[in-house]
Design brief:
272 residues, alpha+beta, 2 domains, 4-stranded antiparallel β-sheet, 20% strand
């Protein structure tokens, strides 16, 4: 399965989907898309790495269900209209920690190169009703005139501006959404944790194999050194000083030296 569908009505739904991997294979670095599908049109709401999308969306849903997601009192016009004005350079906005207060209600926004370019908002009305609103962004805020299709001036865009979709989400529907999205986030976290565990286990196996290979290489080097040392010895066992001198000359490493020394002595003993 590559899709997670959040139904709004019989003909409207939010679609979370992966273009490349089934849901059960997703991790935090998978590409992910979110779309709003209605009888009138389908809007691509977001496209980015997977974890940020459902995780942030779940947090907003939780606040909306608990009626803690009203628009800031400074948002006196349509939130999407104000977002366009801010990007155009208007200055009469309220900020919190250098961020416009309206952003706290933004669920998704499409990359700048996608047309139509849209932002998605979730908020509570004064009576607590949950609203999902999709608004259009002026495509040429940051792009040249020759980019995209059907260029229009900012003034012409503002004149025709209106929200693309304003949908009331029943509280029970929002709760179902939250449950499904949290399950998706949990699944991704488990998948990521398992992936991390597998990587750590593989690293441990590689280290163990490397240690075993080095021990084998040392052993083979010691055996080779011992054979080479034994060849230069006379049939009768020479003095200990001579044995030490030969081993020191043939074998360099301390660990190998000890092993080689044992093997040489063993060889000499057999010849006696």
């Amino acid at each position: 399965m590559r899709k997670c569908i959040l139904n709004i009505s019989d003909h409207e739904y939010l679609l979370f989907e992966s273009a490349y991997a089934p849901m059960w294979q997703l991790d935090s670095f998978s590409d992910f898309r979110v779309s709003l599908c209605t009888p009138a049109a389908t809007y691509k709401l977001a496209e980015e790495w997977v974890k940020a999308l459902p995780n942030d969306f779940a947090q907003l849903l939780d606040k909306a269900i608990n009626k803690k997601l009203k628009l800031d009192k400074s948002v006196k016009e349509n939130v999407g209209l104000m977002w366009n004005r801010l990007q155009h350079g208007d200055t009469d906005f309220v900020y919190e920690k250098c961020v416009w207060v309206g952003i706290r209600n933004m669920a998704f926004t499409t990359p700048a190169n996608i047309q139509p370019n849209v932002s998605t908002w979730i908020y509570n009305k004064a009576n607590g009703t949950i609203v999902l609103e999709v608004t259009e962004n002026y495509f040429w805020h940051y792009l040249e005139k020759d980019k995209g299709k059907n260029y229009e001036t900012y003034e012409a865009f503002i004149k025709r501006y209106k929200p693309l979709a304003v949908i009331v989400i029943p509280e029970e529907t929002a709760k179902y959404w939250l449950k499904d999205v949290q399950a998706l986030v949990k699944h991704m976290e488990e998948k990521e944790a398992q992936k991390k565990k597998d990587q750590e286990e593989q690293i441990a196996r590689n280290k163990k194999e490397n240690r075993a290979r080095k021990r084998l290489e040392k052993k083979e080097a010691a055996e080779k050194a011992a054979k080479k040392a034994a060849k230069v010895l006379k049939k009768k066992a020479p003095a200990k000083k001579v044995v030490k001198k030969i081993i020191k000359k043939v074998v360099k490493k301390v660990v190998v030296k000890k092993t080689a020394k044992k093997l040489v002595k063993k060889t000499i003993k057999k010849k006696k």
